[in-house]
Amino acid sequence: MVMTEQEKMLTAYHEGGHAILALNVAATDPVHKATIIPRGRALGMVMQLPERNKLSMSYEQMTSRISRKRPKLLPRSARISKRI
Q1: Is 15 one of the annotated active-site residues of the chain?
Q2: Is the Cβ–Cβ distance between 31 and 47 less than 8 Å?
Q3: I want to staple 49 with a disulfide (CB 3.0 to 4.6 A). Which of 32, 58, 61, 68 is the partner?
């Protein structure tokens, strides 16, 4: 798959929005990598990895993980980042 410059720019803004949100949600794992290189069906991704192995997590960490994956704000964060 070959992406045009316009697609690369839009994907970068989109993934940047995800990264900004991940950095600002409390009790989440740190951002490990953000990329706009297409892999499979994804045009880009933001990867978060824990700093150490975890055997359990707090309620705050669980709700942060949910808000990171399926919030109403998350898809909008990418759109908002395009406006900034």
Answers
A1: yes
A2: yes
A3: 32
